[in-house]
Amino acid sequence: MDDRQIQIITDSFWPLLKAGVIYTIPLTLITFALGLILAILTALIRLSSWTIPKFIASFYVWVIRGTPLLVQLFIIFYGLPSVGITLSPYLSAVIGLSLSVGAYGSEIVRAAILSIPKGQWEAASSLGMSRMQALRRIILPQAARVSVPPLGNSFISLVKDTSLVSIITFVEMFRKAQQFVALTYEPLLLYCEVAIIYLAFSSVLSVLQNYVENRLERFSAR
Question: Where is the ABC transmembrane type-1 domain (predicted)?
Fold first, then answer.
């Protein structure tokens, strides 16, 4: 590695890290929160007896899980303007990522709810609780603990998936790296650098995930 390459790394590191902290992480948090709300609602609807809403929820999950996220982002940002709907890169990114999290997360939440023994429902009913009360007070708290590990993995994956929004011109960390590549003509160097930053973010989140899981295990053991 020559002096020029070292200088490129030095000059690009803080702008890349800043883009990650200011844009990538907040985008991840916002879309995960919205996606989680959508996931819970979708899972509950799919477990209900409402025929039409259940069909709509199942169709939504089928479409999102069956098509690439990259294509979905293209449709939202580049396709919708042809029918008169123009969205900003940021709003397109939030919608696309939230829909993806909602679809995949709904399967996690649904499986977690189904994993709770039917005896829990029966016990709640014997205490005079309605189905909604049993769901809110007994089933969902238990399902939440079951959902934490897979949802944590989804969150970490979402951090990496945000790099896809660079194709709709949203300037997050990977897009910033592309801009540096266009100026320096050092793609291998800069893409490896941004990969290391993504790896650092994912590693920190993995440690936090393990901490949360250990805390939940201790709480459940009491």
Answer: 21-209
